[in-house]
Amino acid sequence: MLATVFLVIVVTLLTGHYFLVERPRRLAAESANRPQALPLRQLVNRVPAGVFLQPTFTWGQVRSGGDVEIGVHPMLLSLLGPNLQMETRSAGEHVDKGDPLMTVGDGVRHLVVRSPVAGSISMANAAPPVETEWQSRSDRTCVIQPESLSDEVPTWMLGQSAVDWSREQYGRIRDHLLARSADPQTGLALADGGELPVGALKQLSEDEWAEFEEEFLNA
Questions:
Q1: Helix 160-179 to helix 206-216 angle, to the nearest 10 degrees?
Q2: pLDDT of 30 higher than 60
Q3: How far apart are CA 93 and CA 95, in angstroms?
Q4: Cβ(139)–Cβ(70) under 8 Å?
Q5: 49, 166 contact by CB (below 8 A)
Q6: For the segment 90-106, what is each residue's pLDDT rounded down to a tens digit?
Q7: CB 216 within 8 A of CB 113
Q8: Within 10 A of 213 (CB to CB), how many other CB atoms are there?
Q9: CA dihedral of residues 96, 99, 102, 108 (deg, nearest 10)
Q10: Helix locations, the chain, DSSP H
Q11: How far apart are CA 54 and CA 52, in angstroms?
């Protein structure tokens, strides 16, 4: 009888330790190792060296052979928030400048991100090489063999001009979202300091997503 009671106590203590101590510790460790969505202001005020921005809310990094790695501006990814879904065009496909290149969304609604350059996709769903401190999460990229890179690069933004453009777009997006908040009584729920929160787009309707895409992603 005492042995049975002792066994029950031991099992209860071990079970309690797992759920109250060990499991939360493991989840916290997993969360710490997983790239997190960064506050938008952290993504606006810096751009990694050697990374161009395009008006299509994409970034590009020119490889040594002349191919271009294309990814989605992390500010847009943070606006979508955690658990986003991303699909890219397939390797071997040809895209013209302005053609749909990627879709990003929450599984129900999505935005179309367009190609900033014409060319052939040589690699899809690649792991991005840009600095992790600038990324909002592990997004996917495409590698494109451009048709005329020399014509496109002078129109792209680098360094301070890229930062200035990002700041300007943040202001435009903030004004746009505040005017189209899901709850007209309370407005868009802002983060500390009155900044746009991570996942701000999730507070809007599907029609408002379409308006956002038309306004910002059809450059």
A1: 150
A2: no
A3: 7
A4: no
A5: no
A6: 999 999 999 999 999 98
A7: no
A8: 16
A9: -160
A10: 2-17, 23-33, 40-44, 74-80, 149-152, 160-179, 206-216
A11: 7
Tally: H helices and E strands in the chain:
7, 9
User: In this structure, what are the phi and psi dihedrals at residue 155, rounded to the nearest 5 degrees?
Assistant: -90, -5
The pTM of this model reads 0.75
Of 49, 96, 120, 216, the residue nearest 59 (C-alpha)? 49
pLDDT single digits (tens) 115-147: 999 999 998 877 665 555 565 445 678 899 999
- Tokens representing residue 141 in the block: 């990229």
Q: Indicate the Cα dihedral angle 120, 126, 132, 135, nearest 10°.
A: 70
Is 103 exposed, middle or buried (CB count within 10 Å of its CB: 0-12, 13-18, 19+)?
A: middle
With a CB cutoff of 8 Å and minimum separation 6, the contacts of 90 are: 121, 124
Strand 68-72 relative to strand 141-146, pairing: antiparallel
The pLDDT of residue 91:
92
The secondary structure of 89-107, three-state, reads: CCCCCEECCCCEEEEEECC
Contacts of 18 (CB under 8 A, 6+ apart): none
CA atoms of 212 and 127, how far apart (whole Å): 27
Amino acid of residue 141: T
| Phi, psi at 66, each rounded to 5° | 100, -10
Residue 111 phi/psi, 5-degree rounding, is -120, 145
φ, ψ for residue 13, nearest 5 deg: -65, -40
Model confidence at 113, in pLDDT bands (50, 70, 90)? very high
